[in-house]
């Protein structure tokens, strides 16, 4: 194991160059804009009824603004991925790596990231929010401050009604356990809040 020295100034300079490059690519693209729904295929997948409801409600919202609804599955090639995210006026997704593609959205776009909590009641032992992972407050927010990044929290019992919520408070690594499961659900009120 060897410690290496990192020139913090060079890291900041490189990050600023990356931000500039991304912003220069985030220009207006020709063609219709869309609302993009990210649909995961393995872990943290949408429960089928939730997926269908999101598609209907987001498609209705898109029509109001003369847009279309598109879906991103994560299996698209780079060109298709870039096209989908550049055309998206808004993206709606459950937490995941696809959020990195938000960096390629047009100026002024909106990214809605849905997440849950790592305890059954949403409060940890220090009486603070036990919010599970999110990308919206990380480095991408710094790289693309022109994008409105929203985090929408769903209680664990709502997001995963098929799982025993009491297990969550006694599990050694709730982060990994949550990450491994699929069938993410949203109730009607959650969907209403997301599309308003």
What does this structure look like?
With 196 residues, this protein is of the alpha/beta class. It has helices at 8-25, 48-64, 78-87, 139-143, 156-159, 165-168, 174-179, 188-195, and strands at 34-38, 68-72, 88-94, 110-115, 148-153. It has a 5-stranded parallel beta sheet with strand order 2-1-3-4-5. The radius of gyration is 18 Å and the shape is globular.
Tag the structure with descriptive keywords.
5 strands; five-stranded parallel beta sheet; 196 residues; single chain; alpha/beta
* Strand-residue proportion: 5-15%
Compute the number of helices: 8
Protein structure class: alpha/beta
Query: Could you say which overall geometry the principal axes of the C-alpha atoms support?
Result: globular
**Residues in helix, %:** 25-40%
- Gyration radius over CA: 18 Å
Strands, total number: 5
Strand order of the largest sheet: 2-1-3-4-5
| Secondary-structure element order, N to C | HEHEHEEHEHHHH
Low-confidence stretches: none
Kindly, what is the distance between the CA atoms of the first and last residues, rounded to a whole number of angstroms? 52 Å
Largest sheet: 5 strands, parallel
Overall pLDDT metric: 84
């Amino acid at each position: 194991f060897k410690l290496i020295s990192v020139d913090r100034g060079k890291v900041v300079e490189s990050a600023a160059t990356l931000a500039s490059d991304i912003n220069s690519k985030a220009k207006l693209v020709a063609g219709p804009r869309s609302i993009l729904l990210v649909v995961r295929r393995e872990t943290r997948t949408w429960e089928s009824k939730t997926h269908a409801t999101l598609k209907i409600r987001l498609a209705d919202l898109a029509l109001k603004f003369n847009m279309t609804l598109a879906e991103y599955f994560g299996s698209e090639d780079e060109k298709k991925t870039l096209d989908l995210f550049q055309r998206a006026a808004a993206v709606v997704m459950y937490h995941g790596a696809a959020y990195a593609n938000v960096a390629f959205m047009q100026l002024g776009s909106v990214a809605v990231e849905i997440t849950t909590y790592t305890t059954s009641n949403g409060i940890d032992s220090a009486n603070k929010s036990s919010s599970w992972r999110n990308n919206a407050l990380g480095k991408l927010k710094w790289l693309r401050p022109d994008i409105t990044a929203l985090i929408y929290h769903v209680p664990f019992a709502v997001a995963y009604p098929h799982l025993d919520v009491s297990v969550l408070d006694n599990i050694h690594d709730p982060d990994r356990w949550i990450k491994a499961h699929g069938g993410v659900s949203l109730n009607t009120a959650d969907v209403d809040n997301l599309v308003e």
